């Protein structure tokens, strides 16, 4: 009976964070410099890693990506299997690994401290952008036939990285007290 309660609770938490990530994709903040708006997907992916841990957080983000690839309208652009050819799809893949790494670091032995929270947050952010930029480079240069240098992509993504750096710093700051306050429920 206890194991069944545990499984149901985990399924509800995974579904909740999957839904939050999907909602975060549609919270669009206009970007005055580029046509791609700022979104809050990364915020909820980070919270999934911090609050659900590496396993459930990764399942939640993976489920979100899978839903989009199956055609559910959860991505910022039209969903479906063809989305893998979007230059920004790598950032969705980056969310998966970033959430896992953030969860792993936050689960390391010892108290979940502010130092550990910032280390996890910045490690996740770096992984997210490395995977996203690498994928974008491949799509532009080999699929779209639009040769683009890596430094051009990095400079074009800098404003998004700066926004995420600020958001992930805020997340790292609030994750510690939030996690402590909900520890008995999650």
How is the secondary structure organized here?
Elements lengths: L1 H25 L14 H29 L19 H19 L6 H30 L6 H33 L4
Description of the molecule:
There is one protein chain. The chain has 186 residues and is mostly helical. The chain has one domain (2-182): Arp2/3 complex 21 kDa subunit ARPC3, CATH 1.10.1760. It has five helices and no strands. Helix 2 (41-69) crosses helix 3 (89-107) and helix 4 runs antiparallel to helix 5. The longest helix is centred in the C-terminal third of the chain and has 33 residues, at 150-182. The chain is globular. The two termini are 18 Å apart.
Q: Which CATH class is shown?
A: Mainly Alpha
Number of helices: 5
In terms of quaternary structure, the protein is single chain
**Class from helix and strand fractions:** mainly alpha
* Average predicted local confidence, pLDDT: 92
Distance between the termini: 18 Å
Count of separate structural domains: 1
Name the helix and strand elements from N-terminus to C-terminus, one letter apiece.
HHHHH
Q: What is the CATH T-level topology? A: Arp2/3 complex 21 kDa subunit ARPC3
Overall shape: globular
Number of strands: 0
Percentage of β-strand residues: under 5%
The largest sheet, given as strand count, sense and whether it forms a barrel, is: none
Work out the helicity level: over 70%
Keywords:
single chain; about 190 residues; mainly alpha; Arp2/3 complex 21 kDa subunit ARPC3; 5 helices
